[in-house]
Amino acid sequence: MFSSLLALVAIVPAFVNAQAAIYAQCGGIGWTGATTCVSGASCQVLNSYYSQCLPGTATTTVGTTTVGTTTVGTTTTTTTVGTTTKTTGTSSAPTGSQTPAAGNPFTGFNVFVPPFYASEVTAAAANITDPTTKAAALEVLNIPTFTWFDQVAKVPDLGTYLAAASAQGKSSGTPSLFQMVVYDLPDRDCAAAASNGEFTIADNGQANYFNYIDQIVAQITPFPDVRVVAVIEPDSLANLVTNLNVAECAAAQTTYLACVTYAIQQLNTLGNVYSYLDAGHAGWLGWPANLQPAANLFTSLYKSAGSPSFVRGLATNVANYNALVAASPDPITAGNPNYDELLYIEALSPLLTGFPAHFIVDQGRSGVQNIRNAWGDWCNVKGAGFGTRPTSNTGYTAIDAIVWVKPGGECDGTSNSSAPRYDYHCSLSDADQPSPQAGTWFQEYFTTLVTAANPPL
Ligand SMILES: *[C@@H]1O[C@H](CO)[C@@H](O)[C@H](O)[C@H]1NC(C)=O
Ligand SMILES: *[C@@H]1O[C@H](CO)[C@@H](O)[C@H](O)[C@H]1NC(C)=O
Question: Are 301 and 261 in contact (CB under 8 A)?
Fold first, then answer.
C-alpha cells in the first residue's frame, strides 16, 4: 500500500504537466487532471463541473445560477450549481443547436420492443407449465419495455439494439423509437442499498460517469433515424429533494447534479434523444411539502444546464406501483391529497415555471392496487400485476405516454439479509420472498405479474 502510494506520487507530475487533448476535460469541481489544452484549443468552462478543451478561444462568463433550495427537517441547504457561459469563436456548444419536433415525441413512431428483455421473457415463459399462464406470459413479448443501461459494460449493446430498431423502421416505413434508462450514477441509490451501482464518488466516479455518457452518445450518433426516449437517473434528484438527511445523499449531491447536468447536455447534442428526468412518484415528491422544492430543483438544474431543448419533461412512478388514476385512495396514502400519479402531475405542473411540464408515467407494475402495507414499500411488492399497456394516447395533454419502464420480472433487490446490497424493504411482509439480487430474474414474481395483470394479458 505504502509503496504504491509512493509510486503514485512519482507519476502525478507527469499528469499535471500534460496538456489535455482537444475535447478532453480540463477543469471543473473535483478535477485533478491537466488544466491547459493542446495548441489550437482552449479550456472553456461549460459548467462548474466540467471544462472542456474546445477549438476557439474566448469565453465569457455571464452568470451563476442557484440550483435548488432543499428543506429537510429544519435545515435548509442551498446549492449553487453551474456557471453559465457564452462561448465565442468556432467551438461547438454543449447544448446543441437542433430543434426538437413540436408536440409529443412518441407520435409517429413505432416503439421498439427490446431484445434483451424479450429473451428473459421467452426463457421465463418456457419455464411455465400452465398453458394459459404461458400464453399470457408470451403476450409480454409484444409490449415495449425500457432497456436499462445500469453498467457501462452494457453500453456497447445500445448500438446493436439501435441498428435493429433502425432496420425495422426502414423496412416498415415507420421510424422506430427506442426507450432507454440512463442509470449509472456514482454512489447510486444513496438512500437505500439494493441498487447501489458500480461507480463510487471516492474512486473517480464522476469521471467514470462522464465516460459512460460519452459512450452512450457515441453509440447513438450513427443512428439519427431512430428516435430515443431516455429516462434520466431514477431516484437521483428525488433523493436530493427529500433525503439530504442521509449522509450518503448529502455527500453525493454535488456529484449527482454535475452528472445529471452532463448527461442532459451531452444527449442534447444528438438531436434525436428526448430526455425525461426522473421525478419519483406521488408518494414521494407528491407530498404537498415536497412539491415546491422538487419543482425548484428540476427548474434550476434545467436552467443551469442551459435549458437543453431536448429535455422534454419528467418521468414518474418508475418501478413503482401507483395507479395513474386510482379508483379510490389506497388507505396507505392517507394525508396526501395527491394519492395517484395524475393528481401528483397536476399539482406539480403549475410549479414548473420555465421547465417543460410534459410527463411519461410508468404503469408496468400498477395493475393491482391496495397491496402495500406502507406507501414507501417498493421492493417486489406481493400481488402486483402488469398494468395499463404503453400508449401515447393517454387522454391527458400533459402526459406524453404511459410506459413500462421497469422490466417486470427483474428483481428489485435481495431478501437475503447476509447478501451484499441487502435492503430491509425486501424482507418486509409485503415483499415477495425469497428474492434474488436486484436486476436478476425473479421467476416467481414474473409469474405473479402475468396472472394478476390488469387489464389481463
Ligand atoms: C427453469 O426451470 C428449471 C427447471 O425447473 C430451473 O432449473 C431454472 O432455474 C428455471 N429458470 C428460471 C429462469 O426460473
Ligand atoms: C445469503 O447470502 C449469503 C452471503 O452472500 C450466502 O452465503 C447465503 O448462501 C445466502 N443465502 C441464501 C438462502 O441464498
Answer: yes
Among this protein's residues, is 423 annotated catalytic?
no
Count of Cβ atoms closer than 10 Å to residue 15 Cβ: 10
Taking CA atoms only, the protein residue closest to ligand 1 atom 4 is 127
DSSP character string of 140-209: GGGS-BPEEE-SGGGHHHHHHHHHHHHHHHHHHSS-EEEEEEE---TT-STT-STT--S--GGGTHHHHH
Q: Whole-angstrom Cα distance, residue 274 to residue 276?
A: 7
Radius of gyration of the chain (CA): 22
Beta strand 41-47 pairing with 50-55: antiparallel
Question: Residue 75: what pLDDT?
Answer: 31
Which residues, listed in sequence order, are joined to residue 341 by a DSSP beta bridge? none
- Outline which parts of the chain fall under CATH 3.20.20.40: 110-451
Half-sphere exposure of 179 (CA within 13 A, CB side): 27
Class level of CATH domain 110-451:
alpha beta
- Choice among 189, 340, 400, 432 that is catalytic: 189
CA–CA distance, 209 with 152 (Å, rounded to integer): 9
CA of 443 to the centre of ligand 1 (A): 8
Q: What's the Cα-to-Cα distance from 189 to each of 17, 196, 235, 238, rounded to whole Å?
A: 37, 5, 7, 10
Tell whether the model's pLDDT for residue 94 goes beyond 70: no
Beta strand pairing call for 147-149 and 59-72: unpaired
- Beta-bridged to residue 16, according to DSSP, are none
pTM score: 0.81
Which is it for strands 176-182 and 110-111: parallel, antiparallel or unpaired?
parallel
Please indicate whether residue 417, judged by its CB atom, sits closer than 6 Å to ligand 2.
no
- Spell out the residues 6+ positions from residue 365 whose beta carbon is closer than 8 angstroms to its own: 319, 320, 321, 381, 384, 385, 386, 387, 406, 408, 449
In the chain, what is the straight-line distance between the N-terminal and C-terminal CA atoms, in Å?
A: 58
The residues, ordered by sequence, that sit 6+ positions from 173 with a Cβ below 8 Å of its Cβ are none
* Ligand 2 binding pocket mutation candidate from 418, 421, 433, 440 (most atoms within 8 A of CB): 418
Other Cβ atoms less than 10 A from the Cβ of 252: the count is: 27
Q: Which pLDDT value is given to residue 21?
A: 74
Mean pLDDT for 350-377 is 97
Does residue 63 or residue 206 have the better pLDDT? 206
